[in-house]
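A favour, since you know our structure tokens better than I do. What I am after is a single protein written out in full by you. Could you add the entry underneath, on a fresh line?


***
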Amino acid sequence: MPGIYGPPPPRKPADGARAPAPPARPESSTITALRWLGTIVLLVAAVALWVWAELRKPMSPELQRLQQMQHQIERINHQPVFIDFKALESLKFEPLQTAEIIPSSAIVPAKAQPALQTAAPISRP
């Protein structure tokens, strides 16, 4: 008997009336390895392309100046340093400050002032 919304849904066929779906064929390990290898190659190529594009951008003058300074500092740091020790022996070093040793008999203890009491003492009943 049809309802107000149209004919009733068809009945499900009995078990075994339909052929079961064939099982999914598992992928071989070679196909899986090739997929991973392709993914990694594409990722490395994308990063290399991005780095190449960033390096081709023109640098600002401030950045160029900083890079030149960095190269100069690296070049200076890798040069050997020669110290003339004979010239250093002739220099006379003097201390920047001198200290006077005071004998303990000259030290006079300071006299402390009596403590000032600002609050009234608490009386106990």
Remarks:
- The chain has a mean pLDDT of 82.
